[in-house]
Specification:
Largest sheet: 6 strands, mixed
Strand content: 35-45%
Shape: globular
Number of helices: 1
Number of strands: 11
Helix content: 10-25%
Order of helices and strands: EHEEEEEEEEEE
Low-confidence stretches: 1-28
């Protein structure tokens, strides 16, 4: 299942609905600064902007699907870790981030909470970029998804 947020009306509608729900919900996504997701903070490790691994989930974003957001996994510092990556025909300012939950996120049985780690920004045309990486866990409630914002279109892959 892919989550797509469309620009203009869709984003306004989502914000209005999200604001109304946050009054009722007991948990909600928390956004972490890049500093809270790198150099060992909260278990995250910094990785190269062009790190490559096994693609677990993907989705195109932007005009003519010019960019690809992927959730990847790789052995990093001796552990299997997940991270988000943006590639394709990227432009400066395109964004990528990773959502992480240990409680099932917004899936059935989850508590609706997750940590949004990022965003990271593409620095130059045609360059990829990655989020920080977090270790994987066998728990069915420990999940990741990759998200991005390209040409005003935002979206996330399914959870993995």
């Amino acid at each position: 299942m892919k989550t797509r947020l469309r620009k203009a009306f869709g984003m306004v509608t989502l914000c209005a609905v999200g604001s109304a729900l946050s009054v009722v919900a007991t948990t909600a996504p928390a956004q972490a600064s890049v500093a809270e997701c790198t150099n060992g903070a909260n278990g995250f490790v910094s990785i190269p902007y062009n790190q490559s691994g096994t693609v677990q989930r993907s989705m195109p974003l932007g005009v003519n699907n010019r960019a690809m957001i992927t959730l990847q996994s790789a052995t990093i510092q001796g552990r299997t870790r997940g991270y988000a990556k943006i590639g394709g025909v990227t432009r400066p300012g395109d964004q990528v981030w990773m959502d992480w939950t240990t409680t099932g996120g917004d899936l059935p049985g989850g508590d609706g909470g997750w940590l949004q780690c990022g965003p990271w920004y593409v620095q130059s045309a045609g360059s990829p970029n990655t989020s920080a990486a977090q270790r994987t866990d066998p728990s069915p409630r420990w999940l990741f998804r990759a998200c991005g914002l390209v040409d005003g279109e935002g979206g996330c892959t399914g959870w993995w």
